[in-house]
Amino acid sequence: MSKKNLYRPNVAMIVLSHKYPQKKEIFIAQRNDLHEVWQFPQGGIDEGEEVQEALFRELEEEIGTKKATIIAEYPEWISYDFPPKIAASMKPFIGQMQRYFLLKLDKDAKINIQTEHPEFSAYKFVKVDDALNLSAAFKLEVYNKVINYFKKESYL
Questions:
Q1: I want to staple 156 with a disulfide (CB 3.0 to 4.6 A). Which of 7, 130, 139, 150 is the partner?
Q2: Cβ contact 94:80 at 8 Å
Q3: Exposed/middle/buried for 4, CB within 10 Å: 0-12, 13-18, 19+?
């Protein structure tokens, strides 16, 4: 298996409330399997699945809705390594290679984290910088890079 194949293809999303652009509030959720770890919704891209198809499937699987509009896309794949504790359960992968999107929830979107296979125990909308303060250390570099890109492009 090549080094590239050791990274799980994944789609991730920064979800803005329907009040965007007047209010720049980001959805962040607390994982139910890692104490005090908050993150953006994300998930694997299935074999043969298009990236945007995976994006909306994962959005619905994780937060119970796919009523959202794509505002922007990070222009390249970005990767990170799993910490050892997580890597053990994700074999043969050593990390994730992600495609990031910035989404705005539709006004009539209803969030429900009690999905068929719940991954989150709580969620909230926070200011951009607060999202970074709550995120897991091993994801912080990626989150910073993606958020700073969207800030530079005047989306955040």
A1: 150
A2: no
A3: exposed
Which value, to the nearest 10 degrees, does the dihedral of the CA atoms of residues 154, 55, 82, 14 take? 30
Residues 90, 92, 97, 102, CA torsion sign: negative
- Cα 39 to Cα 119: distance, rounded to the nearest angstrom: 11
The CATH number for 133's domain is: 3.90.79.10
> Which residue segment(s) compose the domain that 122 sits in?
4-152
| 8 Å CB contact between 10 and 2 | no
Q: Are 97 and 10 in contact (CB under 8 A)?
A: yes
pTM over 0.70: yes
Q: How many domains does the chain have?
A: 1
